[in-house]
Amino acid sequence: MMMFKPTIDEATLVTQSEYYIEFDGQKFATDNQGFLQQRLVWNEALGQHMAALDGITLTGEHWEIIHYFREYYDDYNIPPPMRMVMRVFKKAFGEENANSRYLLKLFPEGATKAASKFAGLPKPKNCK
Amino acid sequence: MVGKKKLLYVFEDGPYSGSAGIEALDAVLIGASFEQEISLLFLNDGVFQLNAGQSANSQPTGLKQYTNAFKALSDFDVHQIFVHDLSLIARGLSQKELLIDTRLLDSPKVAQLIAQQDKVFTF
Amino acid sequence: MSALITITESLFNRPSLYEQLAFASNGDSILLIQDAVLGLQSPIALASFLAKCDVQGIGVFALQEDCDLRGIDNQYNTISLVDYAGFVALVVGNEKQIAW
């Protein structure tokens, strides 16, 4: 007895979606900006492919952040705030590169938006 | 720079009774990203939002368990979480059954809290 | 002609429900769903309501799924929790269904 609309995590059939990514012989439903409709279908290879579509080759630094986004989302159902991302980044790669300028170099579209996308998460609510 | 505003978000309905809870939480996180001084108040059935042990992820509903995000509030620098004591007690809940650390307020203290705010959003 | 009475709204917002029981008949069943299950958490909130149901011969049920979803721990042994199959059985077992 739910008065509730199913969320995006529920099965969204490719056939119902106007937008999709073709990868590895499969079609993955997305929104109009390339965010996956179903985060559970995500894997690293698909993440790599999604980044390539945006012209980005993922490095270890990217992955550190992308994995953090996935873990955080699994726990809390929201993307992490920037200062937490910075803290994780500092721990992994040291003080000197842990600033927003460097993060923007990694993710020119903005870390929260791009890391969410490549992690297979829905588009963050406060991103355009 | 404009000074910080005191914003209060009031939760008055239980979870899953509509989308008010999710919308309120989104509004809180957006407010937090603008570094305002944010407080949350749980009143009436709103106290059930914080009830631990909600099984939203269980099949077959597959509902997103959005209330888990309350546990992330401190990461967003939101620490002022208030619960109306009578609302809690009348509903058979206690502070230790809640998802996160909260401060209990009696009715006059709730009135004081509301009076101190620049803006109050009720969901 | 027994009826299944469904209530979806939180009983904490329905102080007049006790009086409304005057419109129910012996043999009717009341099923609490959605926000109406919130009341089961309080060991006192529903006591007088349930006592009156008992006197009038009205069975009271609540949907298990909606309790679990909200983390509600049923405090009343006079309220039977039903799954969706039990819900269907209640619908089928009564001539009509009324929403309160």
Mind explaining what this structure looks like?
The complex is a heterotrimer of chains A (128), B (123) and C (100). Chain A is mainly alpha-helical and 128 residues long. Chain A has one domain (14-118): DsrC protein, C-terminal domain (Arc Repressor Mutant, subunit A, Orthogonal Bundle), CATH 1.10.10. Chain A has helices spanning 44-53, 60-76, 82-93, 100-106, 111-118; strands at 19-23, 26-30. The model of chain A is unreliable at 1-14 (pLDDT under 50). Chain B has a single domain (6-50, 62-122), classed as DsrEFH-like (Hypothetical Protein Ychn, Chain: A, 3-Layer(aba) Sandwich). With 100 residues, chain C is an alpha/beta fold. The two termini of chain C are 17 Å apart. Chain A binds chain B through residues 2-7, 9-10, 72, 75-78, 80-81, 83-84, 125-126, and chain B through 16-19, 26, 29-30, 32-33, 61-66, 68-69, 71-72, 75-77.
Give short descriptive properties of this protein.
heterotrimer; B: 123 residues; alpha/beta; 5-stranded parallel sheet; 24% helix; 20% strand; C: 100 residues; Hypothetical Protein Ychn, Chain: A; 4 helices; 5 strands
- Give the helices and strands of chain C as they follow along the chain: EHEHEHEHE
Number of β-strand runs of chain C: 5
The SSE string of chain A, one letter per element, is EEHHHHH
CATH architecture of chain C, please?
A: 3-Layer(aba) Sandwich
CATH class of chain A: Mainly Alpha
Q: Which structural class fits the helix and strand makeup of chain C?
A: alpha/beta
Strand content of chain A: 5-15%
User: What strand order characterises the main sheet of chain A?
Assistant: 1-2
Q: In brief, what are we looking at here?
A:
The complex is a heterotrimer of chains A (128), B (123) and C (100). With 128 residues, chain A is mainly alpha-helical.
Please give the structural blueprint.
The complex is a heterotrimer of chains A (128), B (123) and C (100).
Chain A: E1 19-23, E2 26-30, H1 44-53, H2 60-76, H3 82-93, H4 100-106, H5 111-118
Antiparallel strand pairs in A: 1-2
Helix pairs in contact in A: 2-3
Chain B: E1 6-11, H1 20-33, E2 37-42, E3 80-84, H2 85-90, E4 103-105, H3 107-115, E5 119-122
Chain C: E1 3-7, H1 17-20, E2 29-32, H2 47-56, E3 59-63, H3 64-70, E4 79-82, H4 84-93, E5 96-99
Parallel strand pairs in C: 1-2, 1-5, 2-3, 3-4
